[in-house]
Specification:
With 302 residues, the protein is an all-alpha fold. The protein is built from twelve helices and two strands; from the N terminus they run αββααααααααααα. Helix 1 crosses helix 12, helix 4 crosses helix 7 and helix 9 packs antiparallel against helix 12.
Length: 302
């Protein structure tokens, strides 16, 4: 019996050794690629975040001075507040409209496929191209939006040229482009729902709202959380639309963390300080992502 076990153990060891020889030639190139593309740049960023380094000068080690300066920088603090403000609006509106659109497009009606195709077209365009088109539409004198407003008797708006309205204006563009993404995710959840609960609810005399509130929403809630996670991370790191339409202006009225980071690195060439901003921004995104993924795992709809 012991001899049989010894033979089996030897065979298992040989098999594992063979697997290892086959396994490593595939793993090592992938590991090197991940190190070169992801790990090495982050290590370099961490190193530079504790140095004072401006382009054209030699780096000088300053320890945590960049981080201390960062949290005493009012411009950085305002950039965080604007990022939170922009992200909140840029997530809220696409989520609400995307869920509503998914419910509508889930129903059977003539030319439903064509309507769905038209609805998702904004998502297919590149953010820079979208921003350029909307920039022309937002022009106070020549833009088509003010022409439409004045033609129906409403006052013209300054849109992205006003410090008060610039962030809501940017949110309008984000909502127009990314509501279809939320719709597609939630629509996929709706398509997988069982029909038995709805048939039972109809027999009990439940209204459409009651079926949506007590059946549809709880069942599709995991898909909504997925859409919320994707949309939140995307809104936090939004750059293209803001940079093209307002470039952080007027003044610094729409200067989010991404724009502040860009200005610090490529307008003032302060790479050490910009690296510290990058590290803090990465930590912020990671914390938000962990909270949302935790909600995805633990939260149930009440």
């Amino acid at each position: 019996m012991s001899a049989t076990l010894a033979v089996a153990a030897a065979q298992a060891k040989t098999k594992t050794s063979n697997y290892a020889r086959i396994y490593w030639p595939f793993v090592v190139p992938a590991g090197l690629l991940v190190f070169a593309i992801i790990i090495a740049p982050w290590v370099f960023t961490l190193i530079m975040s504790v140095h004072e380094w401006k382009v054209g000068e030699d780096p000088a080690f300053v320890g945590l001075e960049n981080y201390i300066r960062l949290f005493n920088d009012s411009r950085f603090q305002w950039a965080i507040l604007r990022t939170v403000y922009f992200t909140t609006l840029a997530v809220l509106f696409p989520m609400v409209l995307g869920i509503a659109a998914a419910v509508c497009f889930h129903k059977n009606f003539p030319f439903r496929g064509l309507a769905r195709t038209i609805f998702i077209l904004p998502m297919m365009a590149t953010p820079v191209a979208v921003a350029l088109v909307w920039t022309m539409m937002f022009h106070p004198q020549l833009g088509v939006l003010n022409y439409l407003l004045t033609s129906i008797g409403l006052p013209a708006s300054e849109w992205s040229y006003n410090a008060v309205s610039v962030i809501p204006t940017l949110v309008l563009v984000e909502t127009w482009q990314w509501t279809p993404l939320v719709m597609l995710i939630v629509l996929g959840g709706l398509a997988s729902l069982p029909q038995d609960p709805y048939e039972a609810a109809k027999l009990d005399g439940a209204s459409s709202w009651q079926m949506f509130r007590h059946i549809t929403l709880p069942l599709v809630w995991p898909h909504i959380i997925v859409a919320l996670v994707i949309r939140t991370i995307d809104a936090l790191k939004a750059f293209d639309t803001i940079f093209v339409i307002s470039n952080g202006g007027p003044g610094t009225a729409s200067e989010t963390l991404n724009i502040f980071l860009y200005q610090t690195a490529f307008a003032y060439y302060n790479m050490g300080y910009a690296s510290a901003i990058t590290v803090v921004f990465f930590i912020l995104i990671m914390l938000v992502s962990l909270v949302l993924f935790s909600a995805r795992q633990k939260t149930t709809f009440q």
